[in-house]
Specification:
With 88 residues, this protein is an all-alpha fold. The protein is built from three helices and no strands.
Length: 88
């Protein structure tokens, strides 16, 4: 059975073979980043209310770190994607 692939589909398949699960990784970065943002807002509101500051401040720092890491990973992923497209 002969399968005919369009050039666009072949290019997409080759890109996926070089970097498997890129879309899944970006989805995970997005979900963790949003989760960190929501958590950060909650801890920021706790700090603004003056409730349990000794726990809320370190937790806010952790949430900010998670958001920062996800932004870094997202940008790194996009940079690698652009670099692989330029090599073609």
């Amino acid at each position: 059975m002969s399968q005919k692939f369009t050039p666009e589909k072949m290019a997409r398949l080759r890109a996926e073979a070089k970097n498997p699960y890129r879309s899944l990784r970006q989805f995970i970065y997005l979900c963790f980043g949003l989760s960190g943002g929501v958590g950060g807002m909650i801890f920021l509101l706790q700090i603004a209310a003056g409730r349990d500051l000794e726990q809320a401040i370190p937790n806010l720092a952790v949430q900010a770190g998670v958001v920062g890491l996800m932004i870094f990973l997202w940008r790194w992923e996009n940079k690698n994607k652009l670099a692989s497209q330029e090599k073609k």
